[in-house]
Amino acid sequence: MLKNLIASLLSGIYGFVGNYGLSIILFTLFIRLILLPFAIQSKKNMVVMQKLQPLVNELQKKYKNDPKTLQQKQMELYKEHNHNPLSGCLPLLIQMPIIFTLFSVLRDAASYVPQSAIDQPFLWLPNLVDPDTLANVVNMSGAERIPGVLPIIAAVFTFITFKMTQSQTAAVQASPDGPKAPNMNFMAYVFPVLILMSGASYSAGLILYWAFSTILQFVQDRLLNAYFNPKEDKVA
Hints:
By secondary structure, the chain is an all-alpha fold.
């Protein structure tokens, strides 16, 4: 049902603009707008946790040898400030099925828009079916196996958004006695590389969606960070 809904949306946008590449861009923008309320809620939760973290750190120091009491005191602290620490997971849980379905729809785009539209040139790309490789901009031997402009853009902005999220999460989870999170730092480098290499094998339409989506996420995160400034309001 979700796949049919998203596919109908993409098909409807194409019917309005008549260009598959532009349809993907408008489609991505529309999806980001739908997910924006969840991103705002997630940011609010992160800001609250960042404000509460000094108090949590004090509790961890005070009750470091009494885990049961520590947990109780933390729950009392969250209740006092009307905060549910698990509520930040909800936006991610809602977004994941949508994201996976989007990939499925874009992978089978020929079922929802005319094949002739997918085969049309877009920007420097000869079509949005074949991968975007260096061969699209440079005439040299082996260029068809090297990721092109779109995969590079997607990889760069994926790395940037990962590092932004990592710095925000580190600020929230900062604790003198707390464990560090090396896995996040590892993924910040590995995932963009995977995106880059995938660009040489996945369709350009799919990479166009991912590239534009990560650019929008970068802009969204910058705007939300500017609006929800945790330094403006301290917890007493």
